[in-house]
Amino acid sequence: MKHILFIVTSTNVTGTGKHAAGYEFSEVADPYMEFTSKGYTVDFASILGGTPPFVGYDKTQEFSKTFKEGNGFKRLNFSHKLIDVDINAYDAIFFPGGLGPMTDMVSDPLVKETIKKVYESGRVIGAVCHGPVALLNVTLSNGKNLLEGKHINSFTKAEEDIDKHTLEDVIPFMLDAELTKQGALFSNTTPFDSYVITDGNIVTGQNPASASGVANAMMDIIK
To answer: Which of 28, 174, 182 is CA-nearest to residue 97?
Structure first.
């Protein structure tokens, strides 16, 4: 049996406007359903532990409704503190998006060290939408930035503009620009269409529509 650790934001507000934030519900629910339907075990961690905040729940989305009514959501609401997790127990880690990670995943030393350990051991790292913000500021053992020369994607400026996510008031920076600044080879598709990129053992997806695709691409590598 393969084991996946979802690392979820603990932040419930974003920007100078103090807008509601958290993880994007479908970006946890969709990958969770993909993984568990294939026999994978999913655990949940967050920086603070406990019940992570969420936004965007839509009961008309089948995976979201099923997840919220099941044991997975109950377990998520008792997420482990990341510091208490033995990362060696997992075959992969996954970072869902939402605006919360734009605050607490950017520079957290434990998040950076966790990504470094998983990447350098050859295990799989997945992230979707704003989740790739966790990949920023990761220095490898050879002194290089993790993102240097990596094919990566994330939520784009075009999508931020459509959602009226203005700088400072809602988001602290444009994620696509910062990923590129740190050496990523960034590419994307039409706003809100599914788009997934795999580069070695790193899988990234552009937006909520890409969440299931990221999970399936991760499983392709793990197999």
So the answer is: 28
Residue 206 CA to residue 21 CA, distance in Å, equals 18
Is residue 1 over pLDDT 90?
no
Average pLDDT on 79-89 reads 98
For the chain, the average pLDDT equals 98
Residue 52, amino acid: P
Across 174-191, average pLDDT? 98
- Residues near 220 by beta carbon (within 8 Å), at least 6 away in sequence: 198
> What is the Cα–Cα distance from 19 to 169, expressed in whole angstroms?
8
If 0-12 CB within 10 Å is exposed, 13-18 middle and 19+ buried, where does residue 207 land? Answer: buried
Strand 3-8 versus strand 92-95 pairing type: parallel
pLDDT of residue 43: 98
Report residue 85's pLDDT band, with 50, 70 and 90 as the boundaries: very high
Strands (E), the chain: 3-8, 13-14, 19-20, 23-24, 41-46, 54-55, 80-81, 92-95, 124-128, 151-152, 185-186, 196-199, 202-205
Distance in angstroms (rounded) separating the CA atoms of residues 99 and 130:
7
- Confidence at residue 88, expressed as pLDDT on a 0 to 100 scale: 97
C-alpha radius of gyration, the chain, whole number: 16
Beta bridge partners of 196: 205
Query: What distance lies between CA 137 and its chain's CA centroid?
Result: 15
